[in-house]
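Quick check before the chapter quiz. The format below is the same one you will see on the exam, so make sure you can read both the input and the output lines.
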Amino acid sequence: MTIASEPHTGTTRSSPSAVTAASDQAELRRVFGHVPSGLVVVAALGPDGPVGLLASSFTSVSLDPPLVSVNIARTSTTLPVLRKADYWGVTVLGHGQRALADQLRRPASERFDGTDWAASDDGAIHLDGAVAGFHTRVDRLVPAGDHVIALLAVHGHFVTPDVDPIIFHHSRFRLLEQEHPA
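Here is the expected output.
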């Protein structure tokens, strides 16, 4: 297998010398860890307060109509509760929210203890101190292997321009490096 350079000049370069089969899940997870992503909290108001989860698979999908998506493991115990809510808040975590990101990895009953959050009239939850957020309505949930892709219609959004996001890379929380003028 060769990978052509862009634009094609007739030259090629070799592919990595050892390509591991995609069926090796542990190795595939390690390789996925090489792709940095932001962290979001997907949350809605449940019968006993906020319910939600931390996700690193958030992405924009479309501007017209405005859509975003997030992938949630089918084994998630939070997903059945979220499915009962029509509106979800998607909060992009900021660099000052590392401790909150750790807390959101705890059992569902402890995730929002002591956190500052606000609920919209229709039950979407957003956390204070965020980089940005999206007020969404569930468009559809699409089965995809061991996950569900939640396709979400954006009904509103906000941004805090002076806050940088947390980055998730190699299973660790990281901060963006600030550029310095040359």
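If your answer matched, good. The longest helix spans residues 25-32.
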